[in-house]
Each structure stands twice: as structure tokens, then as C-alpha cells.
Amino acid sequence: MIDRALAWSIRYRYAVVALAGLLVIAGVYAALDLPVDAVPDVTTNQVQINTKAPSFTPLEMEQYVTFPIEVAMSNLPQKEEVRSISQFGLSQVTVVFNDGVDIYRARQLVLERLLEAQQQLPDGVIPELAPVSTGLGEIVQFTLEVQPGSPKRYSLMELRTVLDWFIKPQLRTVPGVIEVNSYGARSSSTKFWWTQRSWSASGSRCRR
User: Among 4, 47, 90, 156, whose Cα sits 20 to 30 Å from the Cα of 112?
Assistant: First the structure.
């Protein structure tokens, strides 16, 4: 059979050369169109659930928050594993699905079970789904600084306020931006103090 293939190639050598040229062109075109990433994203197909409870210890987070969520996610279809981390005031549950599962369908399945699990969580503790991104999805980091020679001086808290209230909302409107995280400095807060007489005079009611 090899002799017949060699004889055919010699007899129709121009067709063989043309076919080889087509294969080379197709290979070059495929190589140029191939998406090549400098740092390939090997993250599994996963959905993360983050829950904040600032006054809870790691043991309380595990017992009252993480465990009920893990039980609710234990029998999801096409699930590979469920892992979790419980820290001071923070619970993170990661549900890993098969690679063939659509990420938005997986999030829908997790959200349905999460609504059921929320009934077993302490009052005021609301779990949230993490954005559709991975650890390699971070693209740009920037700092907010005062221009040298500016007549007005800004404190770190004022810069954080400008970042949180003016810059972050504008960045979220950029197409393709999933989430904008800010860190550094102290965020400002507003506290109100009132007496029992002024509270009663306002007509407001408070449940203990």
C-alpha cells in the first residue's frame, strides 16, 4: 500500500505540492487566529458565595453560616466539589461544576438553593454571589494621588471618598468591567446620636 501511495504521489506531484501548500496556508491562518494568553486561566468552572457577618468568630461563621450553605449546595446537579473558608466575619463557599456546565446556568442553580439556605441563616446575614470573574481577571490597578503643586491638600480619607463616590460608579459603566475594588485609607462614615426624648418626638419606633 505504501508503494501505491508513493507511486500516486510521484505521478500527481503537482497536486501533492498544491495540497501541501493549502495545508501550510491553513496552518498559518489558524496560528494567527489562535487566542494565545500569556498567563492561561486554568481556574475551574466555579461559583463563589460570600457572606459577611462582622461580629462572628470563625467558629460561629462555620457553624451558623458556612455549614447551612454547604448542606444546601451538597446535591446540586453536575457538581464536582464544595469547599469553604470561614474567617472573622467572612464566609466563602466555592461550588465547582463540570467544565461543560454553562456558568450562568450554574449561578442560577446556586442562587435557587441559596434562597432556601438563607432561611436558616441568622437575621441580617445575607449571602451574595461573587462576580463572574477569576483571580486572573484583574487587569488594571491605579492609585489616586493629589497633583504636585495643588493649592488644596486632601487627606487619605477624602481621597477614598472621591474614589468610592465618584470614580468607582463611572468605572462600572465601562463595557466589560465586572467589578471595581478599592482598598487603602479609611472610608468615611456618618453617625447619628439622639436622645430618647428627640427619638420619641420624631414619631419613630425602635424594636429591641
Answer: 90
Q: 13-33 and 2-11 helices cross at what angle (nearest 10)?
A: 90
- DSSP letter at 163 equals I
Residue 37 to residues 41, 66, 99, 207: CA-CA distances in angstroms? 8, 35, 19, 56
Q: How many beta carbons lie within 10 A of that of residue 77, not counting itself?
A: 10
CA 119 to chain centre: 24
What distance lies between CA 169 and its chain's CA centroid? 18
Alpha helical stretches, state H, the chain = 2-11, 13-33, 58-61, 67-73, 103-117, 156-162, 168-172, 196-201
- Whether pTM exceeds 0.85: no
